[in-house]
Design brief:
Blueprint lengths: L26 H15 L5 H13 L9 H25 L9 E2 L5 E2 L1 H14 L7 H12 L2 H13 L1 H4 L2 H21 L6 H14 L34 H15 L8 H20 L4 H6 L2 H6 L13 H5 L2 H19 L11 H20 L4 H23 L15 H7 L8 H12 L15 H12 L15 H14 L1 H5 L1 H4 L12 H7 L6 H35 L1 H6 L5 H10 L4 H6 L2 H17 L1 E2 L5 E2 L7
Antiparallel strand pairs: 1-2, 3-4
GO cellular component, one term: THO complex part of transcription export complex
Protein name: THO complex subunit 1
């Protein structure tokens, strides 16, 4: 026979001998298994000490380590029969089923036979010795065979084992059975008299199932339309109130029962609004005093745990209008309906119209004002209702978004000792530097490889910018490399180290002036590499002009001094001397030495003086890089 899945296996001791297969197919075999478990539930030891041996003795599986599906089903049938016999015996003896066969162990704690049987099966399911859904099937059978008073004790046992039943290996096998069991209990309970028990069941389901479990959520938002409110259609004889108001008042329940029908047609909304206006006007015309709140013992009613469905007799209408609790129930129903109408769907088109929103807002303000004035503690009650409705909006939108999961995968917290022990050791402080360091150790030539560690040449670096400057390339301005500030900054550094001539063009032409001429097309090269008048040439021209003015001043001074000397000592020489040609003087000043033709025009004394001046100027002058002589100031005589 094929092996069962891992969840159906039973772990047996390896040293045990092979047993002959025993099928529980007859009543005798089933009775034998029942007797074995009857003896087991009378033991006072913990189930973990004898539960596994009890299964081995009762089943005798075909293989040592496997409990096949048929054997597992036979064991479940036998245990369900045993549970039925114990419940029957408890009913005949008149005892509570959870207390039947109660005994006292060494620690003086009492336990019954049925809880003992459930503990044994729960241990076997938890450890994977038997199928995980067996315990849930026994609990469902037990609740179906018990009265409502006994079901409270059975459910108390379920609540006490909630942590074990909620484990993943058991939850997946029995969650649907548990949901069916709880729903059956809710159907059997009275919503008016068993409110506390119903609340316990709902709280258990909320804790047992995860928040995002869709089986517990009304995804489609279906209303309980079966909750009809019947009231009198015809006025009885001797009625003391306005019967039209009576029908108007109770007709509101049709809209509260199915709010979606109110938004189907505008006529239904207008009818609801007119009926609600009549009711609100009546409440405002007949306000309640503090004495009315004390007379009705509202605080005692709120502390009592029961749900109310008010009677609709027309004879009680006058008394109900004086009841603060009655008014609060009606007004809270109105607030719930308004919240639904303001956000009925995901799409904006499904929402109410602008005029309808204004009408809802007006009615909502009137309802809140009435709730605030109802004694006692009207303001506190209104604040609590508003807080509940605000929280309810979050759940409504969560359901309309498809119930996304709330749970996150739990991460186990590691102690500081474990984290230090498992933390990798880093040589350079962080993981990136450590990886770089270890990579260099494994590749010693990586950091010295000339193809890796090198500075690009000027031509190589400026090639992308040269391509951008080529008009034929058609590269748009916004994608040019000159817009990259990091690229320009690095290029300036390279040019300042390797190309001073190109670096000097940055002042006149910007970053594009640094591109070498051989990279540019002819039409672009002429724009950035024409020879402009440099600052140095301008400075040299200014120096020449200043030098000419100084030379003219010196020549005039020499001429004047020579004239004075000739006038005072040698008139004959003055007469024989011819005047100097201005052009010859200028040429002497510019060239520094007179030509032979100029010497012929000069007198011997003037020619000698000119030659002496040229020699002095040549000795005292300094030669510049441009090949020009700069005159220095002559020392004072």
């Amino acid at each position: 026979m094929a092996e069962a899945p891992s969840g159906l296996r039973i772990l047996l001791h390896q040293h045990q001998k092979e047993r002959t297969p025993v099928h529980i197919s007859s009543h005798a075999d089933r009775d034998r298994v029942i007797e074995i478990f009857k003896k087991a539930i009378l033991k006072s030891d913990s189930p973990e000490n004898f539960a596994l041996q009890t299964v081995q003795e009762a089943i005798k599986p075909q293989r040592q380590t496997v409990l096949v599906q048929d054997e597992n089903q036979s064991l479940e049938n036998a245990l369900r029969t045993l549970l039925q016999e114990l419940v029957s015996s408890a009913v005949q003896s008149g005892e509570d089923i959870m207390q039947y066969g109660q005994s006292i162990d060494d620690q003086e704690s009492t336990y019954g036979q049925i809880p003992r049987l459930l503990d044994i099966v729960l241990f076997l399911c938890e450890k994977g010795h038997v199928e995980g859904g067996m315990i849930f099937q026994l609990l469902e059978d037990l609740t179906e065979m018990s009265t409502m008073r006994d079901c409270k004790e059975v459910f108390g046992y379920i609540e006490s084992k909630q942590d074990i039943l909620g484990k993943q290996e058991l939850f997946g096998r029995g969650k649907l059975v548990m949901l069916r069991t709880c729903n059956q209990l809710l159907r059997r309970l009275s919503k008016a008299n068993d409110v506390v028990f119903c609340g316990r069941i709902l709280m258990f389901l909320a804790h047992f199932f995860p928040l995002s479990e869709r089986s517990a959520v009304n995804i489609k938002g279906v209303f309980n339309t079966s909750n009809e409110t019947n009231y009198e259609k015809d006025a009885p004889n001797g009625i003391s109130i306005d019967f039209n108001f009576y029908k108007t008042f109770w007709s509101l329940q049709e809209h509260f029962r199915n709010p979606a029908s109110t938004t189907v047609a505008p006529t239904k909304w207008h009818k609801f609004q007119s009926n609600l206006t009549v009711v609100l006007d009546t409440f405002e015309a007949q306000p309640l005093s503090d004495d009315d709140g004390k007379a009705n013992n509202l605080e005692e009613e709120e502390s009592a745990a029961f749900n109310i469905k008010y009677l609709t007799s027309s004879n009680l209408m006058g008394l109900e209008l004086k009841d603060p609790s009655f008014r609060r129930h009606i007004l809270v129903q109105c607030l719930i309906l308004f919240d639904y109408l303001k956000a009925p769907g995901k799409n904006e088109k499904d929402g109410p119209s602008e005029s309808m929103k204004e009408e809802i807002k007006t009615c909502e303000e009137r309802v809140k004002n009435l709730l605030e004035t109802i004694p006692p503690n009207g303001k506190e009650f209104l604040h609590s209702i508003e807080h509940i409705l605000e929280r309810e909006k979050n759940w409504v939108w969560w359901k309309r978004d498809g119930c996304p999961p709330f749970e996150k995968q739990s991460t186990e917290r590691k102690t500081s000792h474990d984290s230090v022990k498992k933390r990798p050791r880093l040589r350079l402080g962080n993981r990136e530097l450590h990886q770089l360091w270890t990579w260099a150790d494994k590749n010693p030539n990586a950091l010295t490889d000339p193809q890796r560690v090198r500075t690009p040449s000027i031509t190589e670096y400026w090639k992308p910018l040269a391509d951008d400057m080529d008009v034929s390339a058609g590269i748009e301005e916004e994608y040019h490399h000159k817009n990259n500030r990091v690229y320009c900054w690095k290029g300036l550094r390279y040019s300042s180290r390797q190309d001073l001539e190109g670096f000097s063009r940055f002042t006149d032409h910007g970053i594009e002036g640094l591109v070498p001429s051989e990279l540019l097309p002819p039409e672009v090269r002429s724009k950035y590499h024409s020879k402009p008048v440099s600052e140095r040439s301008k400075r040299a021209k200014k120096e020449e002009e200043s030098k000419e003015s100084v030379s003219h001043a010196e020549d005039n001074q020499i001429t004047n001094s020579t004239t004075d000397m000739d006038t005072g000592g040698n008139t004959e020489l003055e007469d024989s001397t011819a005047p100097m040609d201005a052009e010859a003087l200028v040429s002497i000043t510019q060239s520094g030495a007179p030509t032979p033709e100029e010497n012929q025009k000069l007198s011997p004394s003037e020619a000698g003086n000119s030659e002496a001046e040229v020699e002095v100027e040549a000795d005292t002058g300094t030669k510049t890089t441009d090949g020009e002589v700069d005159a220095e100031e002559e020392p004072d005589a």
